[in-house]
Design brief:
With 547 residues, this protein is α/β, with parallel strands linked by helices. It is 32% helix and 17% strand. Strands 1-2-4-5-6-7-8-9 form an eight-stranded parallel barrel, surrounded by five helices. Strands 10-11-13-12-14-15-16-17 form an eight-stranded mixed beta sheet, with helices on both faces. Strand 12, helix 11 and strand 13 form a beta-alpha-beta unit.
Amino acid sequence: MNYLQRYVILLLVALLCVFKGAAQTAPVLPAAKNKLVVIAHRGNHINVPENSLASYEEAIKSGADYVEIDLRTSKDGILMIHHDVTVDRMTNGQGNVADKTWAELQSLQLKNPKADDPTAYRIPEFREVLRLCKNRIHIYLDFKNADVAETWKQIQAEGMENQVVVYLNKVPDYKKWRSVAPQMPLMTSLFDEVKNKDQLRYFLGQVKIEALDNIYDKEMVQAAQSEGVSVWLDVQSPSEGQEAWNNALQKGVNGIQTDQPEALVKYLTTNGWRNGLSQNAAPLPKKPSYQSLLDVPYGDAEGKQNLLDAFYPDNHNSNTKLIVYIHGGSWSRGDKSEFPKQLLEELVGNRGYMVVSINYRLVKDGQNLFPAQIEDVKKALEFLSSKAKRYGFNGNEFALMGGSAGAHLAMLYAYKHDAKKQVKTVVNLWGPTDLTDKTIRPDGSDADNTVIRFLGTPDHKAQICVDASPLLHLTKETAVPTISFHGVEDPLVHVSQAENLHKKLQSLGTLSQLELYPKEKHGMSASAAVDVFSKMVAWLEKQYPAK
């Protein structure tokens, strides 16, 4: 890469669903003999063309740990190496790489930086590069345009499974690589919306990445490293030199990508920094500490339906505030384990809240229809109140938080069933508020079928629809401060559900904050999730402070 790119790895799950992944073998970066790795950007191309076999040979001679290569595909499906979309800049030809057959690409000559060198350099095939690098140098594979399955097949055929890390440029490639080759280490750039270490740690909890590039803030570098993620910094530029190298070293990064690998290796070696990461990096911050009680029964429903997980700070006491999370899943699926680790570390480890995540009875085969779910919420909160003195937390008040169906249950309890007025605030993550509103769930739609399965009736005017609609139970006496997050393009829970709730709360004189995301659907992408996370924590600190 010769310019910084920021590609968002979108999450296709809701904000509070942690990516579980199918991998059984945890991916790890290739083992390097040096703690601070040097990556030769497109090889060592000072005297030979970039992305040529000769440049990779020169990178090996320079002592670099990795060579960065750019993978593309010819018109007839051959995997080959070339950085640009076109061949114009680097060859004696013209046109798009993808429009040319391999025979046509092979006929081109790479432009040589040394005018007096008569050698004819040509575009290499991926297989050639794998064979050249095997057991000699690792490969940083900039995955520009290629088939994942074929790429992995060729890597395996050459026995290079443990010598490659893949840099992702496109959103769908993350899922493809995790599916086809779950053991392959992946890296990407950090998108611009992540601006601080807390947002970074949250992002890394949602997407399993082994390395990130171009993090320039030292605290964020340390935050990534504390999550087991390496940070590699690009320093290549026309003015690259000791100043750029020193700036990277002072940030404590794990690797440096360079256009001058031979000079950089010599500089590091001369100064005793080739294995000197520990000398350059500040001590990594300790992860927030908290304790947990898992699978605690609060009721007698079958299986795991009446279990909860409790997470509490080390210094908890009778004043420790409690946040109760209710998972989503259309009232028919989901689990308490969906609450993300990063939120736990922030809310419990850093802020000092106690967090409890509950399961409840799920609709299945016509069983456990509403009001079973709200009955379980009542039962769980009563159980928590009864255990407060014994376990040392404040059981007299709660903040309720939920995603989708869980947000519906949180609001319904707060606005209709909280006779003791224990709920002090609600965090509503794209939850339905009015199940009687047929205009936003037409017959046969997913939204309509979901509600019918939940309530057991297609009649939107039935009393049970009213009973199950949080919006219809809002009064001056029942309303509590509420923050709502919603995607404007949500196809399952129409955005008007959040908008109408906000208007009703405002009309009652109750504090309400509505955060709308114009391009989001049901749940949030990673970039929006970072914003949701920050605003959620800020709301809780103001409306329900931990201390």
